[in-house]
Amino acid sequence: MMRFPPTLSPGSPTRLGACWDGLGVNFAVFSANAQQVDLCIFDPRDRREIARFRLPEYTDEIWHGYLPDAEPGLLYGFRAFGPYDPANGHRFNPHKLLIDPYARKLTGPISWSDTQFGYRLHSPRADLSFDRRDSAPSMPKCIVVNDAYEWEDDILPRVPWADTVIMEAHVRGLTMLRAMERNPRPGTFQALGAPQMIAHLHQLGVTTLELLPIQCFAPERYLIERGLTNYWGYNTLAFFVPHAGYLASGSPHELRAAIRRLHKAGIEVVMDVVYNHTCEGSELGPTLCYRGLDNATYYSLVPGDERHLINDTGCGNTLNLSHPRVLQMVLDSLRYWANEFHIDGFRFDLAPVLGREPYGFDQGSGFFDAIIQDPVLSTRKLIAEPWDPGPGGYQFGNFPPGFAEWNDRFRDTTRRFWRGDGQQQGDIAARIAGSGDLLDRRGRRPWSSVNLITAHDGFTLEDVVSYAERHNEANGEDGQDGSADNNSANWGVEGPTDDPAILELRARVQRAMMATLMFSHGTPMLLAGDEFGQTQNGNNNTYCQDNPTSWLDWHRAATPQGRLMTAFVARLAALRRAHPSLRAARYMHGRHRPIPDIPDIGWFGHDGAPMGVEQWNDETFHLLGVRRASNGADGTLDMTYMLLNPGASDVSARLPGPEGQWTLLLDTTQPEREPETLGADRHDITVPAHGLVLLAFMPGGDNAGEDAE
């Protein structure tokens, strides 16, 4: 056992956390309002406290000290002394062991206990009371680590945004039921990087894997008591720690190895990160880390009523990113994942919170300014979820250049259009064109719109066409959780059916929506499992379902229907890659002409004539045609014509100019139909009910690459 000195030496305040330098460990932790901070050392075998030191120095609000001869593997935690004065926002309680905000590894998950609360639960004075019980026995301990890892020739794929196809997936849900060679442990990073998973992503044309939270998170106590858990992970405990539940052996190197394998296959890894709140909840929540170190600084408090926390997140608390040290922690965490794990990008949960200053949301907030100027972070993919429950919480289109944004307008319009709702043609046209009506400013590109039909939060694609209502009874919230407005339809029967006509219609609508997603300008995002008909049985809020409700059912992928849909999605991705007009790098407004008299984008009715005002406003109008043209890098012309018919009857449509030969590339109602070159004298085509067709123009003459502007 290590022999400890009587006191710590001063150490340095310049690097926060526990930093091993080969001769010992420097400890540094921020607290503006603490009066004393103690370092507690624990036995690695029975995890009892074996030494306690007062951090001897306080420099620029950083408490710090140095423990010589300490090595990686050392178990530790903090205790903070100061006023317990909830009315003024202070909740110091030295009886509570605190996690280091910069901890890189923990001994395990939280074991919930009443002792973790700074006040006496069930006291009539609620959080104004004071609890003197030691929480250490029920708290995970921090572990000093050495982050050294041999990355060898790992290179970030840096897939251009215009070529990016995202799949959103849950580490556990994606791999839990997938049988694979070499037996990687299901539900872990080992399985994520397995050859079979990579082959599946390659088959689909996925370039970028967006993972639900993999930072250490804690399930809410009330869920555990109900036999459920926080499956999604939007409840962060430690911002620098990989979630232990996804590690087969406990080593963070498993994640590094998975990322290295994915990078070698050309696939990027984007993390969904939650920097808007923590798992400590409201003022009635536990004291685990930030609350005990400096509640009044780490969290936003209600002005004039500092006992209570601002709850812009709907999760009980809001991190105070207006404070430079809290902002520094977030930026240090992001850089840590980028540098030490080679993460390719970040999707920011409830991103308006991150840009909300005391006066409101500001796209020039300190957080956004810091990210955009950062030499590391600014080179990564940055994706915002542009809404939150707070005031002015819907900010789609208002994020600064450099950020892409989840596009819920695309999701809702696409669902309504293919459901057959009236007067959707104007909105679906704007979404197909990359939502330039909302995003085309300050030099932003179409990729700024992350187009989605489904995501973890809501129905799967199979359920969008199978359920008109949510069915969330298993969540134990009387079925009232999750959105009641899903823009879905069951097409005649709620839930499963054996009716072949309904099954065929549902499959048609799914394929049409998927084709709309893949052939629209912007960045397409698939939900893992939609490519083979994954269902959650009508549950549109599976945040607490760590079971087959959420785990991908790979048996469905092996069915004839599953194989057909998987091959269809792969075909869509291949067509998108082959045709630059389907993935434009710049917004098309009909002003640029790749060839004389042909604008880069145009909209047409069934008669092949440009859409008029009456057609745009016609409530009964359905068929919509969009012709797009662009020049490739070598100057060659690429022109496609896409027709969408959400109606219940086939429609004969005339092809617009120019004169020439068209090739029918895809008919979503006949997914296995081979491409067919139409005769030069063919000027019309039948667009089947609930179907989408895509054609490519075969140019002739010498003017194919000219620019008439």
TrEMBL record:
<dbReference type="InterPro" id="IPR013783">
    <property type="entry name" value="Ig-like_fold"/>
</dbReference>
<dbReference type="InterPro" id="IPR044505">
    <property type="entry name" value="GlgX_Isoamylase_N_E_set"/>
</dbReference>
<dbReference type="Pfam" id="PF02922">
    <property type="entry name" value="CBM_48"/>
</dbReference>
<dbReference type="InterPro" id="IPR011837">
    <property type="entry name" value="Glycogen_debranch_GlgX"/>
</dbReference>
<dbReference type="InterPro" id="IPR004193">
    <property type="entry name" value="Glyco_hydro_13_N"/>
</dbReference>
<dbReference type="InterPro" id="IPR014756">
    <property type="entry name" value="Ig_E-set"/>
</dbReference>
<feature type="region of interest" description="Disordered">
    <location>
        <begin position="472"/>
        <end position="497"/>
    </location>
</feature>
<dbReference type="InterPro" id="IPR017853">
    <property type="entry name" value="GH"/>
</dbReference>
<feature type="domain" description="Glycosyl hydrolase family 13 catalytic">
    <location>
        <begin position="174"/>
        <end position="576"/>
    </location>
</feature>
<dbReference type="InterPro" id="IPR006047">
    <property type="entry name" value="GH13_cat_dom"/>
</dbReference>
<comment type="similarity">
    <text>Belongs to the glycosyl hydrolase 13 family.</text>
</comment>
<protein>
    <submittedName>
        <fullName>Glycogen debranching protein GlgX</fullName>
    </submittedName>
</protein>
<dbReference type="InterPro" id="IPR013780">
    <property type="entry name" value="Glyco_hydro_b"/>
</dbReference>
<keyword id="KW-0378">Hydrolase</keyword>
<keyword id="KW-0326">Glycosidase</keyword>
